Amino acid sequence: MISWKGRQKDLYFLKVRIRQKVVAMEEHFRDTIRQKIVDSQARAYPSFTRRDTRIPAVAGKAVAVIGMRRAGKTTLLWQLMQESEESGTGREEMLYFSFEDERLVGMRATDLQLVVEEYYRLHPRLRDNRKVLFCFDEIQVVEGWDAFARRILDSESCRVFLSGSSAKMLSREVGTSMRGRALEATLYPFSFREYLRHRSLEPREEPARWTKRDRSAIRHELEEYLVYGGFPESLGVRGRDRMELLKSYVDVTLLRDVIERHEVSNPTALRRMVRHLLANPAGSFSVNRFHNDLKSQGITAGRESVYDYLGFLEDAFLLRTVPISTTSERRRMVNPRKAYPIDMGLIGPYDRSGKANTGHALETCVYLELCRRGYEVAYVRTGEGYEVDFHATDPEGNEMLIQVCAAAADSKTLAREVRALGKAAEEHPRAELLLITMEPPAGKGLSGKVKTVQAEEWLLEELPWR
User: Fold this and answer.
1) Above pLDDT 90, what percent of the chain?
2) Helix, strand or coil for residue 298?
C-alpha cells in the first residue's frame, strides 16, 4: 500500500516531468518559430498576379482577408507585403508567418506570444520604434488566436493582417471573435480585369482607343472567362481535370466549412441543394418549393434546416443570394431570392443541360463585379410582373437599374428588356438605367434614358472608390 508521503512524492515527480515537457515543447516552438521567421524574411516574393481587392485602412484595426477556399488569400498577403516594401517599408519590418506547419501542432494561445518575442529578438531596434507589419496566415488553427490578435493591436506598434481557409475565418466568425477590432477584405476569384492581367492581356488603353483587333481579342477572352471562371489554380487546366478540380473545391468547402462546422445531420439534402443552386445560376430559389421537392423524393429535411443550409453556404462563400428590392421586410422574407455561384467556373461541373449558358454566366459575372465594387444589390419585380436583374446602390448612394442580356441585337428581346427597365424606373425614379450586353442593338434604337454598354467595357471600368 502506497503511503501519503509516497503519493506526494509521485505527484511531485509527475509535475516535474510535465514541466520539463512544457519547457521542452516551448524550446521546440521557439526554435521552429525563429527558423520560420528567418526563412520567411529571406524568401523572395513568389510570382503572382496583382489583385485589385480593396483593403480597409483604419488605424488600430486588424484586417481579416476572407473568401472562399482557393481564391488566393495567401497570395494577397504576399502582395500586401511587396506593396509595403515598394512604399518604403523595410523587409525586416514585415513578417509573413503561416501556422499551417506540422512542427507547430499542439501550439496554444499562450505560445503565440513566442512569435512576437522571437521576431523582436531578431530585430530589437524595431520594437516601439517602427510600426511593423504582421501577416498571420492560417492563425485560426491555434485556439484562442483572437485574444492574441486583439492584445498585440493594443500592446505593440504593428499592423495586423489575418487570413485562413477555415470556417473560423469567415465573416460572421471574425466579427464575433475580434469584437469590432477587425475589418474585412473580401477576396473573390479573379475579376475579368485580373483574369486578363493573369494572362498578360490587360488592355492599356481606354475602350475608345481599342482597335478592331483589340476588341476581338478581348471579346474572345470574355467568352472564355464566362466558361472557365477566375479561380487562379484552375486557369490553364482543361477538360476533365478542370471539372474535377473545381468539384474538389466545392466538396472540401462543404465538408470543412459547412458539414463539420455546423454538424449537419442531413448532408444528402445539403448536397442536393448545392447541385441545384450551382446548376441554376441566377435562378429564383424558394425554400418552400425546394423543401417540398425534397419531400417528394423521400428526403427528410425540416424547412428551417433548409433555411439554415442556405445561410451556411453563403457564410462559406460558395454562393451568394440576392433579395427582392423592397422596403417591406415581410415582402423580402416571403419572396424567393436569386442565387449566384461565387464564380462562373462552378456552373459547368454541375450543369447537365449540355447547352451553352452564356446569359446566366454573364449575369453571374455582372453580379460578382457589383459585389467587388461595393454595391448593395437587389432584384426588382414590378407590380405588373416585370423583372429587372439588379437594383444596385453604390457606396456614394447612387442608384442603377441594370438589365443583363447576352444578346440584345434581336428587336423583340431588346423591347422586352427596355420595357422592364422603364417600368422599374417608375418605382426607382432616381436610378440610372443600364443595359449590359455582349451583342448590342444596331443603331441607337433605345429609349433616351436607357444606356447600353458592351459587357467587356463595363467589366473593365475603373472606379474611384475601388
Assistant:
1) 74
2) coil
Q: Which residues contact 408 (CB under 8 A, 6 or more apart)?
A: 414, 417, 435, 437, 439, 440, 441, 452
The 8-class DSSP code of residue 254 comes to I
- Please tell me the CATH code under which domain 4-186 is placed: 3.40.50.300
- pTM score, two decimals? 0.91
Name the CA radius of gyration of the chain, rounded: 26
Mean pLDDT to the nearest integer, 349-353: 86
> Which pLDDT value is given to residue 5?
62
Matching residue, cell 489554380? 233
* Coarse DSSP helix, strand, coil percentages of the chain, rounded to the nearest 5 percent: 50, 15, 35
Cβ-Cβ contacts under 8 Å for 134 (sequence gap 6 or more): 95, 97, 152, 158, 159, 160, 161
* Rounded Cα–Cα distance for residues 73 and 163 (Å): 7
pLDDT in tens, 46-63: 999 999 999 998 999 999
**Domain ranges in the chain with CATH number 3.40.1350:** 373-466
Please report which residue ranges of 66-107 form alpha helices under DSSP H.
73-86
Q: In whole numbers, what is the pLDDT of the chain averaged over residues?
A: 90
Answer yes or no: are the C-beta atoms of 65 and 76 closer than 8 Å: yes
pLDDT digits (tens, 9 = 90+) for 167-186: 667 666 676 778 789 999 99
Q: Class of 373-466 per CATH?
A: alpha beta
Residues of the chain with CATH 3.40.50.300: 4-186
